[in-house]
Design goal:
294 residues
């Protein structure tokens, strides 16, 4: 453990502050009630367990807490990440270790240690329109060899909270709808104005005028702008990298298929199936490498 490098410059997020801070504890209780279809009202029933001191490089633990024998972990993602089950497994190992140490129990004893039931939810609000309203990500999808015994599984339930998705759920949790609305406006105006700072400021002004996250945005305005600048710049950088990798993969695929002397129509169909191209897009991509091939 001593060799692990901890990221001491942990940059929080609007989601983590809005749902993971004691001053806004009602928000996370409302969110949990909406998810679990419960009606808890006592804020003391919820105890934060977020691993703020165990943030490893490039990995963030957003919000985790104990409530009525359940250990919930809520993660927020603006990019689709199939590795969330593995990340969750790592997070929960730390959470359970801390829980057991506080209970002063030993996993090496003959007594069965009862532990809180895990609940792992990933809230997605990125720009990929292909992400479904709900998707269950499985750790077994990452196994090198198939677990034919089906004896081990760990999942992450991903919910798309972009405006236009999971409408009934967002209606049940108004604070989450407000958060999603603000992010939607900030992203939209930043693109329209070609400037993140101006776009976020316009989104803040509009939300305050419409009583959307009003008190939060007034109190935390400078922090919100700074976090949005970091968030959107990071998204743009990651999207650029993904596009570069995708483009390189496509070109290599075309070259390989061409060298196999496959018919033009078959290569077109392969690009459509593998990369979601339309027929015209696939043809143009092939001709960018081999103009005379048809």
């Amino acid at each position: 453990m001593e060799d692990l490098k901890v990221n001491r410059e942990y940059k929080s997020s609007i989601f983590a502050i809005l749902f993971g801070s004691e001053e806004y504890k009602q928000n996370i209780l409302d969110l949990y009630n909406a998810l679990a279809d419960t009606n808890y009202t006592n804020l003391d029933d919820l105890v934060y367990t977020t691993l703020e001191d165990a943030i490893y490089i490039s990995v963030k633990n957003d919000v985790s807490f104990l409530i009525d024998g359940n250990m919930a972990l809520f993660e927020h993602q603006s990019t689709y990440n199939p590795n969330m089950p593995l990340r969750g497994l790592i997070y929960f190992s730390h959470l359970y270790q801390s829980y057991i140490e506080k209970c002063k129990d030993s996993i090496f004893g003959s007594k069965l240690i009862k532990i809180p039931t895990p609940q792992y939810i990933v809230f997605y609000n990125g720009e990929d329109r292909k992400v479904a309203d709900k998707k269950v990500l499985k750790l077994s999808d990452a196994f090198i060899h198939e677990d034919k015994t089906k004896g081990f599984e760990w999942t992450a339930t991903m919910l798309n909270i972009n405006i236009g998705h999971n409408k009934k759920f967002l209606e049940k949790c108004h604070i989450l709808w407000e958060y999603s609305t603000f992010i939607h406006l900030a992203r939209t105006y930043s693109e329209e104005l070609k400037d993140v700072n101006s776009g976020v400021q316009k989104a803040i002004d509009e939300c305050v005028s419409k009583n959307i996250l009003k008190d939060f945005l007034i109190e935390k305005q400078s922090e919100v702008i700074a976090m949005c600048l970091f968030k959107f710049d990071k998204e743009k950088y990651e999207n650029t990298l993904r596009n570069e990798v995708r483009n390189e993969t496509i070109l290599k695929s075309i070259e390989m298929l061409y060298k196999l002397n496959l018919p033009f129509s078959q290569i077109v169909a392969s690009l459509q199936d593998s990369f979601g191209y339309t027929e015209t897009e696939a043809i143009n991509e092939i001709h960018s490498l081999y103009p005379d091939f048809s």
